[in-house]
Protein backbone atom coordinates (compact mmCIF):
# COMPACT_ATOMS: atom_id res chain seq x y z
CA UNK A 1 0.00 0.00 0.00
CA UNK A 2 1.23 3.46 -0.87
CA UNK A 3 -0.40 5.01 2.18
CA UNK A 4 -2.22 7.48 -0.06
CA UNK A 5 -5.95 6.96 0.07
CA UNK A 6 -8.02 6.62 -3.07
CA UNK A 7 -11.65 7.05 -1.97
CA UNK A 8 -13.14 5.56 -5.15
CA UNK A 9 -10.99 2.43 -5.01
CA UNK A 10 -11.76 2.05 -1.30
CA UNK A 11 -15.52 2.09 -1.98
CA UNK A 12 -15.21 -0.36 -4.87
CA UNK A 13 -13.46 -2.70 -2.44
CA UNK A 14 -16.40 -2.38 -0.06
CA UNK A 15 -14.68 -0.02 2.38
CA UNK A 16 -15.64 3.32 3.85
CA UNK A 17 -13.21 6.17 3.03
CA UNK A 18 -15.21 8.71 5.05
CA UNK A 19 -16.03 10.75 1.94
CA UNK A 20 -18.34 9.95 -0.98
CA UNK A 21 -16.39 9.53 -4.22
CA UNK A 22 -17.79 10.91 -7.47
CA UNK A 23 -17.04 10.63 -11.16
CA UNK A 24 -19.35 10.98 -14.18
CA UNK A 25 -19.76 8.64 -17.10
CA UNK A 26 -18.47 10.32 -20.30
CA UNK A 27 -16.87 13.03 -18.17
CA UNK A 28 -14.24 13.40 -20.90
CA UNK A 29 -16.38 14.76 -23.69
CA UNK A 30 -18.10 17.46 -25.61
CA UNK A 31 -19.57 19.48 -22.70
CA UNK A 32 -15.98 20.62 -22.00
CA UNK A 33 -14.70 23.58 -24.09
CA UNK A 34 -11.14 22.25 -23.79
CA UNK A 35 -12.32 18.93 -25.34
CA UNK A 36 -14.08 20.71 -28.19
CA UNK A 37 -10.96 22.79 -28.85
CA UNK A 38 -8.72 19.72 -29.03
CA UNK A 39 -11.21 17.89 -31.24
CA UNK A 40 -11.39 20.86 -33.65
CA UNK A 41 -7.59 20.73 -33.93
CA UNK A 42 -7.21 16.94 -34.11
CA UNK A 43 -10.12 15.90 -36.30
CA UNK A 44 -12.34 12.91 -35.69
CA UNK A 45 -13.26 11.10 -32.50
CA UNK A 46 -11.51 7.90 -33.53
CA UNK A 47 -8.28 9.65 -34.50
CA UNK A 48 -8.14 11.07 -30.98
CA UNK A 49 -8.96 7.75 -29.32
CA UNK A 50 -6.01 6.11 -31.11
CA UNK A 51 -3.62 9.04 -30.43
CA UNK A 52 -2.06 8.35 -27.00
CA UNK A 53 -1.01 11.98 -26.55
CA UNK A 54 -4.48 13.35 -27.30
CA UNK A 55 -6.42 10.58 -25.53
CA UNK A 56 -4.32 10.96 -22.37
CA UNK A 57 -4.83 14.72 -22.41
CA UNK A 58 -8.61 14.29 -22.82
CA UNK A 59 -8.75 11.71 -20.00
CA UNK A 60 -7.01 14.22 -17.71
CA UNK A 61 -9.08 17.30 -18.67
CA UNK A 62 -12.03 16.66 -16.31
CA UNK A 63 -9.64 15.69 -13.49
CA UNK A 64 -7.82 19.01 -13.76
CA UNK A 65 -11.01 21.00 -13.98
CA UNK A 66 -13.15 19.25 -11.35
CA UNK A 67 -10.91 16.95 -9.31
CA UNK A 68 -13.18 13.92 -9.78
CA UNK A 69 -12.24 10.84 -7.73
CA UNK A 70 -12.09 8.68 -10.85
CA UNK A 71 -10.52 9.19 -14.27
CA UNK A 72 -12.04 7.08 -17.06
CA UNK A 73 -9.89 6.19 -20.01
CA UNK A 74 -10.92 8.11 -23.14
CA UNK A 75 -11.77 5.44 -25.67
CA UNK A 76 -14.86 3.68 -26.96
CA UNK A 77 -16.59 0.32 -26.69
CA UNK A 78 -16.31 -0.16 -30.47
CA UNK A 79 -12.52 -0.60 -30.49
CA UNK A 80 -13.15 -4.31 -29.78
CA UNK A 81 -15.05 -4.95 -33.05
CA UNK A 82 -12.29 -2.98 -34.77
CA UNK A 83 -9.65 -5.23 -33.16
CA UNK A 84 -11.70 -8.28 -34.19
CA UNK A 85 -11.31 -7.16 -37.79
CA UNK A 86 -14.35 -5.08 -38.70
CA UNK A 87 -13.72 -1.68 -40.27
CA UNK A 88 -14.84 1.17 -38.01
CA UNK A 89 -15.78 4.66 -39.10
CA UNK A 90 -17.80 7.46 -37.56
CA UNK A 91 -20.11 9.15 -40.04
CA UNK A 92 -20.72 12.77 -38.97
CA UNK A 93 -24.25 13.14 -37.65
CA UNK A 94 -25.03 9.45 -38.16
CA UNK A 95 -22.88 7.57 -35.68
CA UNK A 96 -20.62 4.54 -36.00
CA UNK A 97 -20.42 2.13 -38.93
CA UNK A 98 -18.89 -1.36 -38.67
CA UNK A 99 -18.26 -3.27 -41.89
CA UNK A 100 -19.01 -5.90 -42.86
CA UNK A 101 -22.09 -6.21 -40.61
CA UNK A 102 -22.24 -9.78 -39.26
CA UNK A 103 -25.93 -10.04 -40.07
CA UNK A 104 -24.84 -10.85 -43.63
CA UNK A 105 -21.24 -11.91 -43.19
CA UNK A 106 -19.56 -14.79 -41.40
CA UNK A 107 -17.57 -14.10 -38.23
CA UNK A 108 -14.93 -16.52 -39.54
CA UNK A 109 -14.24 -14.17 -42.46
CA UNK A 110 -12.91 -11.56 -40.02
CA UNK A 111 -9.23 -11.42 -39.26
CA UNK A 112 -8.34 -10.09 -35.81
CA UNK A 113 -5.99 -7.11 -35.74
CA UNK A 114 -5.23 -7.00 -32.02
CA UNK A 115 -2.42 -4.47 -32.64
CA UNK A 116 -5.20 -1.92 -33.01
CA UNK A 117 -5.44 -1.90 -29.20
CA UNK A 118 -1.76 -1.06 -28.65
CA UNK A 119 -2.10 2.75 -28.76
CA UNK A 120 -4.77 2.50 -26.06
CA UNK A 121 -2.32 0.80 -23.69
CA UNK A 122 0.15 3.64 -24.41
CA UNK A 123 -2.60 6.09 -23.43
CA UNK A 124 -3.14 4.22 -20.17
CA UNK A 125 0.58 4.41 -19.35
CA UNK A 126 0.64 8.15 -19.97
CA UNK A 127 -2.41 8.80 -17.82
CA UNK A 128 -1.21 6.55 -15.00
CA UNK A 129 2.04 8.52 -14.85
CA UNK A 130 0.22 11.86 -14.65
CA UNK A 131 -2.77 11.25 -12.36
CA UNK A 132 -2.96 12.79 -8.87
CA UNK A 133 -2.27 10.22 -6.14
CA UNK A 134 -5.83 10.25 -4.77
CA UNK A 135 -7.48 9.67 -8.19
CA UNK A 136 -8.53 6.14 -9.18
CA UNK A 137 -7.90 5.20 -12.81
CA UNK A 138 -10.78 3.30 -14.44
CA UNK A 139 -10.49 1.19 -17.55
CA UNK A 140 -13.50 -0.19 -19.38
CA UNK A 141 -14.96 -2.27 -22.14
CA UNK A 142 -18.41 -2.81 -23.53
CA UNK A 143 -20.16 -6.01 -22.50
CA UNK A 144 -20.45 -8.70 -25.17
CA UNK A 145 -24.19 -8.28 -25.69
CA UNK A 146 -24.00 -4.53 -26.29
CA UNK A 147 -20.93 -4.82 -28.51
CA UNK A 148 -22.57 -7.66 -30.47
CA UNK A 149 -25.60 -5.48 -31.24
CA UNK A 150 -23.30 -3.15 -33.22
CA UNK A 151 -21.25 -5.94 -34.80
CA UNK A 152 -24.38 -7.66 -36.10
CA UNK A 153 -26.24 -4.57 -37.36
CA UNK A 154 -23.09 -2.71 -38.43
CA UNK A 155 -24.48 0.37 -36.70
CA UNK A 156 -26.85 1.48 -33.97
CA UNK A 157 -30.22 -0.21 -34.37
CA UNK A 158 -33.71 0.46 -33.12
CA UNK A 159 -34.37 -1.72 -30.05
CA UNK A 160 -31.37 -3.80 -31.07
CA UNK A 161 -33.77 -5.78 -33.25
CA UNK A 162 -31.19 -7.19 -35.71
CA UNK A 163 -29.09 -8.77 -32.97
CA UNK A 164 -32.11 -10.04 -31.05
CA UNK A 165 -33.51 -11.66 -34.19
CA UNK A 166 -30.12 -13.14 -35.06
CA UNK A 167 -29.81 -14.61 -31.55
CA UNK A 168 -33.17 -16.38 -31.87
CA UNK A 169 -32.61 -17.49 -35.47
CA UNK A 170 -29.10 -18.86 -35.00
CA UNK A 171 -28.12 -19.06 -31.33
CA UNK A 172 -24.99 -21.05 -32.15
CA UNK A 173 -23.61 -18.44 -34.53
CA UNK A 174 -24.57 -15.70 -32.10
CA UNK A 175 -22.81 -17.58 -29.30
CA UNK A 176 -19.66 -17.63 -31.45
CA UNK A 177 -19.85 -13.83 -31.79
CA UNK A 178 -20.34 -13.43 -28.02
CA UNK A 179 -17.40 -15.78 -27.36
CA UNK A 180 -15.11 -13.90 -29.76
CA UNK A 181 -15.95 -10.58 -28.10
CA UNK A 182 -15.57 -12.08 -24.62
CA UNK A 183 -12.12 -13.53 -25.29
CA UNK A 184 -10.80 -10.28 -26.77
CA UNK A 185 -12.41 -8.30 -23.92
CA UNK A 186 -10.60 -10.27 -21.19
CA UNK A 187 -7.28 -9.67 -22.95
CA UNK A 188 -8.12 -6.02 -23.48
CA UNK A 189 -9.08 -5.39 -19.84
CA UNK A 190 -6.04 -7.29 -18.70
CA UNK A 191 -3.84 -5.17 -21.00
CA UNK A 192 -5.35 -2.03 -19.48
CA UNK A 193 -4.55 -3.29 -15.97
CA UNK A 194 -0.96 -4.14 -16.92
CA UNK A 195 -0.63 -0.61 -18.34
CA UNK A 196 -1.96 1.02 -15.18
CA UNK A 197 -5.74 1.06 -14.63
CA UNK A 198 -6.90 0.22 -11.09
CA UNK A 199 -10.50 -0.89 -11.66
CA UNK A 200 -12.62 -1.64 -14.73
CA UNK A 201 -16.21 -1.10 -15.76
CA UNK A 202 -18.23 -3.25 -18.14
CA UNK A 203 -20.75 -1.06 -19.96
CA UNK A 204 -23.86 -2.94 -21.03
CA UNK A 205 -25.76 -0.05 -22.56
CA UNK A 206 -28.44 -2.28 -24.12
CA UNK A 207 -28.90 -4.87 -21.37
CA UNK A 208 -32.45 -3.55 -21.01
CA UNK A 209 -33.70 -4.77 -24.38
CA UNK A 210 -33.66 -8.51 -23.59
CA UNK A 211 -36.35 -10.82 -22.25
CA UNK A 212 -35.46 -12.50 -18.92
CA UNK A 213 -34.34 -15.76 -20.53
CA UNK A 214 -32.28 -14.01 -23.20
CA UNK A 215 -30.85 -11.66 -20.56
CA UNK A 216 -29.62 -14.67 -18.60
CA UNK A 217 -28.03 -16.20 -21.68
CA UNK A 218 -26.49 -13.17 -23.39
CA UNK A 219 -25.81 -10.83 -20.45
CA UNK A 220 -25.46 -12.77 -17.19
CA UNK A 221 -23.60 -15.87 -18.41
CA UNK A 222 -21.03 -14.04 -20.62
CA UNK A 223 -20.48 -11.34 -17.99
CA UNK A 224 -19.87 -14.00 -15.32
CA UNK A 225 -17.37 -15.72 -17.64
CA UNK A 226 -15.49 -12.48 -18.31
CA UNK A 227 -15.40 -11.60 -14.60
CA UNK A 228 -14.11 -15.09 -13.71
CA UNK A 229 -11.39 -15.03 -16.39
CA UNK A 230 -10.38 -11.48 -15.49
CA UNK A 231 -10.31 -12.28 -11.75
CA UNK A 232 -8.09 -15.30 -12.40
CA UNK A 233 -5.50 -12.87 -13.75
CA UNK A 234 -6.20 -9.87 -11.51
CA UNK A 235 -7.90 -11.05 -8.31
CA UNK A 236 -7.60 -7.66 -6.60
CA UNK A 237 -8.84 -5.38 -9.38
CA UNK A 238 -12.51 -4.44 -8.86
CA UNK A 239 -15.02 -4.89 -11.68
CA UNK A 240 -18.05 -2.60 -11.95
CA UNK A 241 -20.95 -4.02 -13.95
CA UNK A 242 -23.36 -1.53 -15.55
CA UNK A 243 -26.34 -3.35 -17.06
CA UNK A 244 -28.30 -0.29 -18.16
CA UNK A 245 -32.04 -0.79 -18.20
CA UNK A 246 -31.89 -4.15 -16.40
CA UNK A 247 -34.56 -3.03 -13.89
CA UNK A 248 -35.91 -5.94 -11.88
CA UNK A 249 -33.19 -8.19 -13.30
CA UNK A 250 -30.50 -6.20 -11.42
CA UNK A 251 -30.68 -8.41 -8.33
CA UNK A 252 -29.99 -11.59 -10.34
CA UNK A 253 -27.19 -9.82 -12.22
CA UNK A 254 -25.64 -8.73 -8.89
CA UNK A 255 -25.87 -12.27 -7.46
CA UNK A 256 -24.77 -14.27 -10.48
CA UNK A 257 -22.08 -12.32 -12.37
CA UNK A 258 -19.47 -11.91 -9.64
CA UNK A 259 -19.05 -8.16 -10.24
CA UNK A 260 -17.63 -6.22 -7.28
CA UNK A 261 -19.91 -3.22 -7.74
CA UNK A 262 -23.01 -2.42 -9.74
CA UNK A 263 -23.91 0.67 -11.75
CA UNK A 264 -27.53 1.84 -11.64
CA UNK A 265 -29.22 3.86 -14.36
CA UNK A 266 -31.57 6.72 -13.50
CA UNK A 267 -34.74 4.64 -13.89
CA UNK A 268 -33.82 2.61 -10.76
CA UNK A 269 -35.41 3.78 -7.52
CA UNK A 270 -32.49 4.22 -5.09
CA UNK A 271 -34.70 3.11 -2.18
CA UNK A 272 -35.54 -0.11 -4.04
CA UNK A 273 -31.87 -0.71 -4.82
CA UNK A 274 -30.86 -0.05 -1.21
CA UNK A 275 -33.44 -2.62 -0.08
CA UNK A 276 -33.10 -5.32 -2.74
CA UNK A 277 -29.39 -5.48 -3.61
CA UNK A 278 -26.94 -7.42 -1.38
CA UNK A 279 -26.22 -5.16 1.62
CA UNK A 280 -22.45 -5.11 1.22
CA UNK A 281 -22.46 -4.61 -2.57
CA UNK A 282 -21.10 -1.19 -3.58
CA UNK A 283 -23.47 0.69 -5.87
CA UNK A 284 -22.76 3.45 -8.37
CA UNK A 285 -25.16 6.05 -9.71
CA UNK A 286 -27.71 7.21 -10.47
CA UNK A 287 -28.53 10.86 -11.07
CA UNK A 288 -30.62 11.60 -14.15
CA UNK A 289 -28.31 13.44 -16.60
CA UNK A 290 -31.26 15.74 -17.33
CA UNK A 291 -31.47 16.76 -13.65
CA UNK A 292 -27.85 17.84 -14.01
CA UNK A 293 -28.80 19.94 -17.03
CA UNK A 294 -31.78 21.40 -15.13
CA UNK A 295 -29.61 22.44 -12.17
CA UNK A 296 -30.94 24.47 -9.22
CA UNK A 297 -33.49 22.92 -6.87
CA UNK A 298 -34.26 19.98 -9.16
CA UNK A 299 -30.60 18.97 -9.14
CA UNK A 300 -30.19 19.45 -5.41
CA UNK A 301 -33.31 17.46 -4.56
CA UNK A 302 -32.45 14.56 -6.88
CA UNK A 303 -28.84 14.37 -5.68
CA UNK A 304 -29.80 14.47 -2.00
CA UNK A 305 -32.37 11.73 -2.47
CA UNK A 306 -29.70 9.42 -3.89
CA UNK A 307 -27.18 10.31 -1.19
CA UNK A 308 -29.64 9.62 1.63
CA UNK A 309 -30.89 6.33 0.12
CA UNK A 310 -27.29 5.02 -0.01
CA UNK A 311 -26.19 6.47 3.34
CA UNK A 312 -25.54 3.02 4.81
CA UNK A 313 -23.69 1.24 2.03
CA UNK A 314 -20.62 1.79 -0.13
CA UNK A 315 -21.72 4.28 -2.79
CA UNK A 316 -20.00 5.96 -5.72
CA UNK A 317 -21.92 9.01 -6.87
CA UNK A 318 -22.41 9.05 -10.65
CA UNK A 319 -25.00 9.72 -13.31
CA UNK A 320 -27.46 7.09 -14.53
CA UNK A 321 -25.86 7.33 -17.97
CA UNK A 322 -23.38 9.56 -19.81
CA UNK A 323 -23.19 13.31 -19.28
CA UNK A 324 -24.89 15.14 -22.16
CA UNK A 325 -23.02 17.60 -24.40
CA UNK A 326 -25.24 20.56 -23.42
CA UNK A 327 -24.58 20.19 -19.68
CA UNK A 328 -23.53 23.54 -18.11
CA UNK A 329 -20.12 23.42 -16.43
CA UNK A 330 -21.41 25.34 -13.40
CA UNK A 331 -24.03 22.64 -12.78
CA UNK A 332 -21.26 20.05 -12.55
CA UNK A 333 -19.53 22.32 -10.03
CA UNK A 334 -22.77 22.64 -8.06
CA UNK A 335 -23.16 18.85 -8.00
CA UNK A 336 -19.62 18.43 -6.66
CA UNK A 337 -20.41 20.88 -3.83
CA UNK A 338 -23.58 18.93 -2.94
CA UNK A 339 -21.91 15.52 -2.98
CA UNK A 340 -18.84 16.68 -1.06
CA UNK A 341 -20.69 18.81 1.51
C1 LIG B 1 -22.87 3.43 -29.92
C2 LIG B 1 -21.90 3.70 -28.79
C3 LIG B 1 -20.71 4.41 -28.97
N1 LIG B 1 -20.12 4.52 -27.74
C4 LIG B 1 -20.89 3.91 -26.79
C5 LIG B 1 -22.02 3.36 -27.44
C6 LIG B 1 -23.11 2.56 -26.80
C7 LIG B 1 -24.32 3.35 -26.46
C8 LIG B 1 -24.13 4.32 -25.31
O1 LIG B 1 -23.82 3.85 -24.21
O2 LIG B 1 -24.34 5.51 -25.54
C9 LIG B 1 -20.64 3.82 -25.36
C10 LIG B 1 -19.46 4.54 -24.81
N2 LIG B 1 -18.77 5.60 -25.32
C11 LIG B 1 -17.78 5.97 -24.46
C12 LIG B 1 -17.81 5.08 -23.39
C13 LIG B 1 -16.79 5.08 -22.27
C14 LIG B 1 -17.19 5.48 -20.98
C15 LIG B 1 -17.02 6.93 -20.57
O3 LIG B 1 -16.36 7.72 -21.25
O4 LIG B 1 -17.53 7.21 -19.47
C16 LIG B 1 -18.87 4.21 -23.58
C17 LIG B 1 -19.37 3.11 -22.67
C18 LIG B 1 -16.82 7.06 -24.61
C19 LIG B 1 -17.09 8.08 -25.64
N3 LIG B 1 -17.53 7.89 -26.92
C20 LIG B 1 -17.60 9.05 -27.57
C21 LIG B 1 -17.14 10.07 -26.70
C22 LIG B 1 -16.95 11.49 -27.16
C23 LIG B 1 -17.47 12.58 -26.42
C24 LIG B 1 -18.94 12.86 -26.32
O5 LIG B 1 -19.77 12.24 -27.01
O6 LIG B 1 -19.26 13.80 -25.55
C25 LIG B 1 -16.82 9.46 -25.49
C26 LIG B 1 -16.30 10.10 -24.24
C27 LIG B 1 -18.02 9.28 -28.98
C28 LIG B 1 -18.95 8.34 -29.55
N4 LIG B 1 -18.88 6.97 -29.47
C29 LIG B 1 -19.94 6.41 -30.12
C30 LIG B 1 -20.73 7.48 -30.64
C31 LIG B 1 -21.98 7.30 -31.42
C32 LIG B 1 -20.10 8.66 -30.29
C33 LIG B 1 -20.53 10.07 -30.64
C34 LIG B 1 -20.07 10.49 -32.00
C35 LIG B 1 -18.86 11.36 -32.06
O7 LIG B 1 -18.50 12.01 -31.07
O8 LIG B 1 -18.29 11.40 -33.17
C36 LIG B 1 -20.15 4.95 -30.22
UniProtKB/TrEMBL annotation:
<keyword id="KW-0210">Decarboxylase</keyword>
<dbReference type="GO" id="GO:0004853">
    <property type="term" value="F:uroporphyrinogen decarboxylase activity"/>
</dbReference>
<feature type="binding site">
    <location>
        <position position="205"/>
    </location>
    <ligand>
        <name>substrate</name>
    </ligand>
</feature>
<feature type="domain" description="Uroporphyrinogen decarboxylase (URO-D)">
    <location>
        <begin position="138"/>
        <end position="154"/>
    </location>
</feature>
<feature type="site" description="Transition state stabilizer">
    <location>
        <position position="76"/>
    </location>
</feature>
<feature type="binding site">
    <location>
        <position position="76"/>
    </location>
    <ligand>
        <name>substrate</name>
    </ligand>
</feature>
<keyword id="KW-0963">Cytoplasm</keyword>
<comment type="similarity">
    <text>Belongs to the uroporphyrinogen decarboxylase family.</text>
</comment>
<dbReference type="GO" id="GO:0019353">
    <property type="term" value="P:protoporphyrinogen IX biosynthetic process from glutamate"/>
</dbReference>
<feature type="binding site">
    <location>
        <position position="321"/>
    </location>
    <ligand>
        <name>substrate</name>
    </ligand>
</feature>
<dbReference type="GO" id="GO:0005829">
    <property type="term" value="C:cytosol"/>
</dbReference>
<dbReference type="InterPro" id="IPR000257">
    <property type="entry name" value="Uroporphyrinogen_deCOase"/>
</dbReference>
<comment type="subunit">
    <text>Homodimer.</text>
</comment>
<keyword id="KW-0627">Porphyrin biosynthesis</keyword>
<protein>
    <recommendedName>
        <fullName>Uroporphyrinogen decarboxylase</fullName>
        <ecNumber>4.1.1.37</ecNumber>
    </recommendedName>
</protein>
<comment type="function">
    <text>Catalyzes the decarboxylation of four acetate groups of uroporphyrinogen-III to yield coproporphyrinogen-III.</text>
</comment>
<dbReference type="InterPro" id="IPR038071">
    <property type="entry name" value="UROD/MetE-like_sf"/>
</dbReference>
<keyword id="KW-0456">Lyase</keyword>
<comment type="pathway">
    <text>Porphyrin-containing compound metabolism; protoporphyrin-IX biosynthesis; coproporphyrinogen-III from 5-aminolevulinate: step 4/4.</text>
</comment>
<dbReference type="Pfam" id="PF01208">
    <property type="entry name" value="URO-D"/>
</dbReference>
<feature type="binding site">
    <location>
        <begin position="26"/>
        <end position="30"/>
    </location>
    <ligand>
        <name>substrate</name>
    </ligand>
</feature>
<dbReference type="InterPro" id="IPR006361">
    <property type="entry name" value="Uroporphyrinogen_deCO2ase_HemE"/>
</dbReference>
<feature type="binding site">
    <location>
        <position position="150"/>
    </location>
    <ligand>
        <name>substrate</name>
    </ligand>
</feature>
<feature type="domain" description="Uroporphyrinogen decarboxylase (URO-D)">
    <location>
        <begin position="21"/>
        <end position="30"/>
    </location>
</feature>
Amino acid sequence: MSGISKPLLTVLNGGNPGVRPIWLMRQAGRYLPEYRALRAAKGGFLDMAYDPEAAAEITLQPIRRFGFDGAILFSDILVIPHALGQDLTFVAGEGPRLTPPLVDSDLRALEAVSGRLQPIYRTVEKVAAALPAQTTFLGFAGSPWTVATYMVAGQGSREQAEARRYAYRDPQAFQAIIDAISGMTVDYLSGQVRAGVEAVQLFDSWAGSLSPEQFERWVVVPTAAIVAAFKARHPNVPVIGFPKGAGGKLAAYARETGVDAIGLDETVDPLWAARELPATLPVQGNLDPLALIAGGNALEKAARHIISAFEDRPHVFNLGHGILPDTPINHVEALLRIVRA
